[in-house]
Write a structure and sequence with these properties.
Length: 227
């Protein structure tokens, strides 16, 4: 009974989240992806929904069930993820880019399956850089003031230094850093929040616990902004 009267920190807010890996085709049956499981993004979607938000989850390929009450849009490639996000960004209060978006796609992807040649050379793949979804959303924010943008950074070393620099470079108010090989596919993680005041460590815990802490931090920052 008491719980139903508790203030939900994201009540009435619309939250758009990307999660999971992307898949970049080489040919109709092959592609390049990464080790993101989607668990952290899905946990954040669930936590934001619990906090009263209307949540849209743009998801790369994962094996996870859709969190209760969350609208989910499935995509494969970074380009599809970019298009789905840009089509849905208007009217959003918060954007959280959790997806491990491929930085490059195959420029010379084949329409037909590549065939092995007896004694022949392996295929030469060429790459082209994908659009930065978070940067595209942050550019819309600089016009309207919305959505409040949260980025993620999976590093393999120098997390504190790289995280702070990445937040500045991306021009976003909040960036969540973690060590990629400590989080991909794991049920637990530890994260570092970077904002204009410096960084705060959220110690190792299961991803839903961290997701709820992050949602509460985002909610507090939205309240401060509207004062
Ligand atoms: N991101 C994105 N679109 C891309 C690449 C990254 O939206 N094409 C988002 C990720 O979802 C994440 C943030 O940008 O929220 C940071 O991603 P990351 O890979 O750490 O940063 P990059 O700028 O791509 O730098 P690098 O991979 O070289 O460290
Ligand atoms: Ca990247």
């Amino acid at each position: 009974l008491v719980a139903s009267f508790q203030h939900k920190i994201l009540a009435g807010k619309r939250v758009l989240i990307t999660a999971g890996p992307t898949f970049e085709a080489i040919d109709p049956v092959r592609g390049i992806t990464n080790l993101s499981s989607g668990k952290m993004g899905y946990a954040i979607a669930r936590a934001a929904r619990e906090a009263g938000a209307e949540v849209t989850l743009v998801s790369g390929p994962t094996a996870l069930p859709t969190p209760h009450g969350v609208r989910r849009i499935d995509v494969l490639s970074a380009q599809q993820m970019h298009d789905a996000v840009m089509a849905g960004v208007e009217g959003q209060h918060v954007f959280i880019g959790v997806a491990a978006v491929a930085d490059w796609r195959v420029a010379n992807a084949s329409e037909q399956k590549l065939k092995k040649q007896e004694g022949g050379a392996p295929p030469q793949l060429e790459f082209v850089q994908n659009a930065d979804i978070l940067a595209s959303v942050a550019a819309t924010t600089s016009l309207s003031g919305w959505p409040y943008c949260v980025g993620f950074a999976a590093e393999s070393e120098n997390l504190v230094e790289y995280g702070a620099a990445k937040r500045e470079r991306k021009g976003i108010p909040l960036l969540v850093g973690n060590i990629g090989h400590h989080t991909f596919g794991q049920d637990q993680n530890s994260i570092v929040l970077f904002d204009e005041n410096g960084h705060t460590v959220l110690p190792r815990a299961d991803k839903l616990t961290l997701a709820r802490q992050l949602v509460s931090e985002i909610g507090k920052r939205l309240e401060q902004r509207s004062l």
